[in-house]
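The instructor's notes for this session suggest beginning with a concrete chain rather than abstract definitions. Hand out the sequence below and ask the class to guess, before any prediction is shown, which regions might be ordered.
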Amino acid sequence: MEQPGVKKRVEKSIEEIRQKLPNIKMLENEPMCLHSSFKTGGRVRALISPQDVNSLSIVCSIIKDNRLMPYVLGNGTNVVFPDDDGPAMKTALALFST
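After discussion, reveal the predicted structure:
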């Protein structure tokens, strides 16, 4: 069961991330089946791909400040996502460059 106010906090987080990191790669309403080796998964509200440590830190801080639980995704190997859509935000590190 979804916590009250989650959708509103997700939308607020997305807006804050856009403001602070206007060039960050953010895929909205993204089907997670495209990011899993098992090809399962419904849509998430935002899939965010920080390109450096600083942007990762900012994204995590915004998510934490809005009382959301981040989900950090690597390459998507051996990950099974639920097929139902959700308001969640995922942070992908598969595209993270050092």
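Then share the key points. Residues 93-98 have pLDDT under 50 and may be disordered. Residues 13 and 62 are 6 Å apart (CA to CA).
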